[in-house]
Amino acid sequence: MEQFPENIPDDQAEDLAEKWLAGNITPEEQAIFDKWYDAQPEQIPTVEASSREEFRELMLRQIKSERSNKKNKRSSLVIKRSWLAATIAACILIAFGLFRYLGRQNEKMDSSIRIAQMVQPGGNKALLTLSNGHTISLDEAQKGLLFSEGSVTVSKSESDLLIYKPNGQITEAARSYNTLSTPRGGKFSIVLPDGTKVWLNASSSIRYPTVFTGGERKVTLTGEAYFEVVHNERMPFSVQIGKVTVADLGTHFVINGYENEPQLKVSLLEGAVKVIAGKTLNSKVLQPGQQAQLDQNGLIKVVNNADIQGEIAWKNGLFNFSGSDLKSIMRQLERWYNIQVEYPPNLPEYHFGGQTYMNVSLSEVLKVLELNGIHFKIEQTNNNQPVKITVEP
């Protein structure tokens, strides 16, 4: 392979630089000039230009300006060639260095875009844990009957719905407990033994009995879920999430109780629920359109005319950004795309509106956010770790 010299005479370097500046340098000469330039101390100026042509124009103006200034300062019209050569070389070195620098920046940008495009949205993924500790990966399980346990059969429908159906006499002895859990980037739906339907969002879990017996139906939740409860006054339905109990009074409701969210929210679509806050037993009964917001001290704030449809947007395949700040939105993206997000100190306040689809690549969602003047640095640390997103306001 042909080797190009790193050190060439000043006259030749100047000649090649002028050809580069004029845009008529040959590929062979360009290779020599590149080799020579790479051997020089790198200079990164603060000027910005968007193309090689713009650099050339800027540098030509700079050289002409230097020449004019020099003429005005001297009584003689003679410009020493050594000074002119130094001026040209310095200007070209800066221009070429900036072009190389922006080229590297563009490569980084292209790399970020490629990484973000590779981060695909989540889907129907969940792990079912049986009473004996055995686990079933539901996204890999075939559709149809999965197993029978006691007096219940469990199947996976064509639409990826986990269905519990009693098939015999229901007794206390027949009851055991299963847990359905979703990972980051996973959602799943289940029909409980009483016909109640539950949609689990990403990074959530629900623990429930395989049959409901006695005087109550009680399940335990972590994360976020939407419930459509089959009402039964003789056997009331309740959800336990942390220290909070949500008691059904015949209803459709959604609970957002992620541990990294600033408050737990219960939003009611229809019917009624009673929200009971831990040991304080502080409680509120919600009517449709209301939302209960609970803080760490068990205090309950009821919001009227809440954006209920926005609260269940994820169930319908949408991210809801209305009234959300940047960190709230990025927490949604962390759970759905399994990414890691970092923020700069003193991050400015950003508030957003609107909705966007969840079934698109990460890059498409970030483009929507960037319309508000935010930028993101995207890095692939290694194959075993989530992609890292750094917010750059």
End-to-end span in angstroms?
46 Å
Classify the helix fraction into a percent range: 25-40%
Give the tally of β-strands: 24
**Mind describing the biggest β-sheet?**
19 strands, mixed
Rg over C-alpha atoms, rounded to the nearest angstrom: 32 Å
Amount of beta strand: 25-35%
- Tell me the overall shape: elongated
Structural class: alpha+beta
The unreliable regions are 42-49, 73-85, 100-109
Total domain units: 4
Mean pLDDT: 81
Number of helices: 7
Describe this structure in words.
- The chain has 393 residues and is α+β, with helices and mostly antiparallel strands.
- It contains seven helices and 24 strands.
- The protein has a 19-stranded mixed sheet that branches. The chain has a three-stranded mixed sheet with strand order 21-24-23. A two-stranded antiparallel sheet has the order 20-22.
- Strand 14 and strand 15 (264-270) form a beta hairpin.
- The two termini are 46 Å apart.
- Mean pLDDT is 81; it is low at 42-49, 73-85 and 100-109.
Quick structural gist:
By secondary structure, the chain is α+β, with helices and mostly antiparallel strands. Helices cover 28% and strands 30% of the residues.
Question: What is the topology?
Answer:
Layout: H1 10-22, H2 27-38, H3 52-73, H4 81-118, E1 123-124, E2 127-129, E3 135-137, E4 144-149, E5 152-156, E6 161-166, E7 177-181, E8 186-191, E9 197-200, E10 205-209, E11 217-228, E12 237-241, E13 244-248, E14 252-257, E15 264-270, E16 273-277, E17 282-286, E18 291-294, E19 300-303, H5 308-311, E20 318-320, H6 326-337, E21 339-342, E22 355-357, H7 362-370, E23 375-379, E24 387-392
Parallel strand pairs: 1-8, 6-8, 11-12, 21-24
Antiparallel strand pairs: 2-3, 2-7, 4-5, 5-6, 7-10, 8-9, 9-11, 10-11, 11-14, 12-13, 13-16, 14-15, 15-18, 16-17, 18-19, 20-22, 23-24
Helix pairs in contact: 1-2, 1-4, 3-4, 4-7
